[in-house]
Specification:
Layout (H helix, E strand, L loop, with lengths): L1 H5 L3 H22 L10 E11 L2 E4 L1 H9 L1 H8 L3 E7 L4 H10 L5 E5 H9 L4 E11 L2 E5 L14 E3 L7 H10 L8 E3 L6 H7 L4 E4 L2 H7 L3 E6 L9 E8 H6 L1 H18 L5 H9 L5 H9 L5 H4 L6 H16 L9 H4 L3 H9 L24
Parallel strand pairs: 1-3, 1-4, 7-8, 7-9
Antiparallel strand pairs: 1-2, 4-11, 5-11, 6-9, 6-10
Helix pairs in contact: 3-11, 4-11, 11-17, 12-13
C-alpha cells in the first residue's frame, strides 16, 4: 500500500483533478442549457412554391407564416436563421422526400401519400401539425370523348403524376369500381403538361387537383367525377411534417415552428381574411375564381377548413392511407400511423396562443361512406 501511494506524483494528481473538473463543467453545461451549444444555425422549411412577379411565393399556410414574419423574428432572437426551400409543383413531393432523407430540410408542408412513402422507405418523419381538412381531386375527360365515368375509360390513356398525393384517391376510385391500373394506359406526366396532352389527344383523361377545374374552365375537357362524391377520407391531405430526429433533438424549436403554423392557420380561418386567403392562394398558380370554386365545393365551413386539431379523423385518415398503400403494393412496409402523429406541439400551441375553443373538436371519426357512393 505504501509503495503504491508513493507512486502518485504531484503532477499526476493535478492532471486527474483537472480532468475531473473539466468533466464536471461539461456535465453542468449540458444539463443547464448545453442544448443551445448544439442548436442548429439554420431551420429549413420546404414548401410548394410558384414564381410570381419575379419571386417565389409559397402556397397555403406556409405563405402566411412567411408573410407574418413572426417565426423568422423568433428564430433570429435565438441566433438562428430561417431558410426556405421552394419546391416546384412539377417535382413536388419526391424532391421533399429527398430533402428529408438527406437531412437538408427540417420541416415541410406537403401531402399525405408522399409522406407515407418516405416513412415506409425509412425516413423518420413526424406529423406535427395537421393543416386543414383535405383537397378535392378531379377526373377530367378530353373533349370529343363520350366517357361519363372511370368505367367508360377502360383501355384508355389517363394522365396521372405518379407518387403524388392524388394517386391514392385515383387508386381508391379504381378499386371501388372493380378496376385496376393495368386496365388503363397510365401516362406519368406532371399537371403543367396535362392540358396540352388533353388538347392534342395524347391522353383521353386526367386525374388532377384543382387543375381539373382550370382545364374545364379553359374548355379543354370536362370534369366527370370528383372526391366530393366520395368519402371524406378520400380527400388529399397536406400537413406539416418534421424530421423525427430534429424533433427529438430540438423540441423547443419544433414548438416555435408549430406555433407559427397555428398562428397562421388562425389568421386564415377568420372570415374577414377569406378574400385575402383566396387571392394569395391564386398567386402564380390558379385564377382566383378557380381557387374560390375549389374551396366552395369542399363543403367545409371556412374556419374549420384550417383546423390544426388532431381530431380522430386525422388518425383514421392516416391509418387508412397507410393500410391501403401497403395492401395495394404502393409501399413495401406498412407505416404505423399511430406512431407517425405527434400532437403534443399543437396542444401546447393552442395554450400558448390562447386558441383553446377556436376550432371545433370532433369526438369521433365520421362513419365511412359506402363504396357504392364513391363509384364513378
Amino acid at each position: 500500500m505504501a509503495s503504491s501511494t508513493k507512486s502518485w506524483k504531484p503532477w499526476a494528481i493535478g492532471a486527474i483533478a483537472l480532468a475531473l473538473l473539466a468533466g464536471l463543467i461539461a456535465f453542468q453545461f449540458r444539463g443547464a442549457g448545453g442544448a443551445n451549444a448544439t442548436a442548429p444555425r439554420i431551420v429549413n422549411i420546404a414548401g410548394i412554391a410558384y414564381p410570381f412577379e419575379g419571386r417565389q411565393v409559397y402556397s397555403g399556410v406556409t405563405g402566411v407564416v412567411i408573410e407574418q414574419g413572426w417565426l423568422k423574428d423568433e428564430l433570429a432572437r435565438r441566433g438562428i436563421q430561417l431558410a426556405l426551400t421552394p419546391v416546384p409543383t412539377a417535382v413536388g413531393a419526391p424532391l421533399i422526400n429527398e430533402g428529408f432523407s438527406g437531412k437538408r430540410i427540417d420541416f415541410a408542408s406537403y401531402g399525405d401519400f408522399p409522406a407515407i412513402i418516405a416513412v415506409s422507405g425509412g425516413v423518420p418523419l413526424k406529423l406535427v401539425a395537421p393543416i386543414g381538412q383535405g383537397q378535392n381531386s378531379y377526373l377530367v375527360v378530353r373533349n370529343g370523348l363520350a366517357a361519363k365515368s372511370i368505367a367508360d375509360l377502360k383501355g384508355k390513356r389517363i394522365a396521372l403524376h405518379r407518387g403524388r398525393p392524388w394517386e391514392l384517391p385515383f387508386s381508391k376510385l379504381l378499386d371501388a369500381n372493380g378496376l385496376k391500373q393495368s386496365d388503363f394506359t397510365i401516362v406519368n406526366i406532371n399537371p403543367a403538361a396535362t392540358p396540352a396532352a388533353l388538347a392534342s389527344g395524347n391522353v383521353d383523361a386526367a386525374f388532377l387537383l384543382s387543375d381539373g377545374l382550370l382545364v374545364e374552365q379553359k374548355g379543354m375537357g370536362r370534369v366527370v367525377w370528383s372526391t366530393k362524391q366520395a368519402p371524406a377520407d378520400w380527400k388529399m391531405r397536406a400537413e406539416l411534417f418534421a424530421r423525427g430526429d430534429f424533433v427529438d433533438a430540438h423540441p423547443e424549436l419544433t414548438q416555435l415552428v408549430v406555433d407559427a403554423y397555428v398562428r397562421a392557420a388562425a389568421w386564415s380561418a377568420q372570415e374577414s381574411n377569406q378574400a385575402a386567403v383566396i387571392r394569395d392562394a391564386a398567386r402564380g398558380s390558379m385564377p382566383v375564381e378557380i381557387i374560390a370554386k375549389d374551396y366552395a365545393e369542399s363543403g367545409i365551413p371556412w374556419r374549420e377548413r384550417f383546423t390544426p386539431l388532431f381530431n380522430p379523423d386525422v388518425l383514421g385518415h392516416y391509418r387508412s392511407v397507410a393500410g391501403y398503400a401497403h395492401a395495394r403494393g404502393l409501399v413495401r412496409i406498412e407505416v404505423d400511423a399511430d406512431a407517425l402523429l405527434d400532437d403534443r406541439f399543437v396542444r401546447q400551441s393552442l395554450r400558448n396562443l390562447k386558441l383553446d375553443g377556436f376550432w371545433t373538436p370532433k369526438a369521433a371519426a365520421a362513419e365511412p361512406a359506402k363504396a357504392a357512393g364513391a363509384r364513378s
